[in-house]
Amino acid sequence: RNTPKICVINGDGIGNEVVPETVRVLNELGDFEFIHAHAGYECFKRCGDAIPENTIEIAKESDCILFGSVTTPKPTELKNKSYRSPILTLRKELDLYANIRPTYNFDNLDFVIIRENTEGLYVKKEYYDEKNEVAIAERIISKFGSSRIVKFAFDYAVQNNRKKVSCIHKANVLRVTDGLFLEVFEEMSKHYEKLGIKSDDYLIDATAMYLIRNPQMFDVLVTTNLFGDILSDEAAGLIGGLGMSPSANIGDKNGLFEPVHGSAPDIAGKGISNPIATILSAAMMLDHLKMNKEAEYIRKAVKKTVECKYLTPDLGGNLKTFEVTEKIIESIRSQMIQ
Ligand code: NAD
Ligand code: IPM
Ligand code: MN
């Protein structure tokens, strides 16, 4: 096997803590060529560009991208209204249309949100109508975009031995846009029903409640961009918070792996951020590289570390970022010599 080429982008804030720790874990598991590249708000302040062209090139040429987190200034802080977060640029430029966001607690909870990653309200077609003093945003739901994400979700269900796909929408109000998304879903579900995959659909508002009251009712959820963004943070709340939630952004050519969380300015620089979300994202990366055994070592090690209560403060512990990583590495080493 060729040595996988991994583009590493720390970004801002705790990205600078959790990504180097994750690279340390990866170095235990195999040979990788790491190519470090810059992006983020600090990068913007330094060089005037949140994501230099060079970074995009490196990302495109790599087998995978390991991404930390970036800070996005509020529009009231930075008057440049067209500022685009580098993660959005990467998703768009590399056409990473499927965002896989699993929620599991190694016990009784295990579902996956499949988030459409390129359109919806994220097309960033916003403008201000001066005359009428109205701000307007376009929300684009295409038949092409809906079909490929819905197909991705059903195929994911088949390949990962899942039983059901739920479409999450607001077609009762957004009758044209989410109406199209739901229509595509219902049409495609007929084919997958024959393969043993069940399907149903729920409104986004009710889903927000069900996720808290009865998350076990879900298996795979497929939804539009912004709904998926919001639901995945809510889902993280079920398993101890954002420090525990990994994700994969998948396109036909590239894969980008990142924690669901942001740069956490409230705790950045203290060395107490939870590295698990990023380490589990690396496990998703290893699965993508067909290094399934190594991915499993990571997940087992995380499970053990959590069970033994080797935890950072967000989970009620008092360990530092590097100490949790040490425990994970210890467990990986002991699994590897068995
Ligand atoms: P956040 O995810 O950074 O933090 C939310 C809360 O979760 C904070 O209390 C934080 O301390 C906690 N938290 C997050 N990750 C943690 C970890 N690994 N360990 C322990 N605690 C953790 O969200 P926010 O505060 O709303 O946003 C901060 C900045 O990050 C904003 O500029 C936002 O735009 C950006 N952001 C970036 C990404 C990304 O790069 N993909 C994702 C979300 C938010
Ligand atoms: C996420 C983040 C991003 C998003 C931001 C930072 C642009 O919140 O990955 O969930 O909205 O997709
Ligand atoms: Mn988000």
Automatic annotation (TrEMBL):
Pfam families: Iso_dh (PF00180). Its cofactor is Mg(2+). GO terms for biological process: coenzyme B biosynthetic process; isocitrate metabolic process; L-leucine biosynthetic process; tricarboxylic acid cycle. Keywords: Magnesium, Metal-binding, NAD, Oxidoreductase. The keyword Magnesium applies. SMART domains: Iso_dh. It comes from the Archaea. GO terms for molecular function: 3-isopropylmalate dehydrogenase activity; isocitrate dehydrogenase (NAD+) activity; magnesium ion binding; NAD binding. Residues 5-328 form the Isopropylmalate dehydrogenase-like domain. SUPFAM superfamilies: Isocitrate/Isopropylmalate dehydrogenase-like (SSF53659). Belongs to the isocitrate and isopropylmalate dehydrogenases family. This is 2-oxosuberate synthase, last step. It comes from Methanococcus maripaludis (strain DSM 14266 / JCM 13030 / NBRC 101832 / S2 / LL). The gene is aksF.
